[in-house]
Amino acid sequence: MKNPKILAAILVILASLVLPEIAQTSTLQQINAGFAQTGQDAGFAPQNGAPRRTFEEALATYVSGMVTIMSALFMILIIYGGWLWMTAMGKEEQIQKAQKIIIGATIGLVIIISARLVAEIAITYLDKATINR
Question: Same structural domain for residues 60 and 16?
Answer without folding.
Answer: no
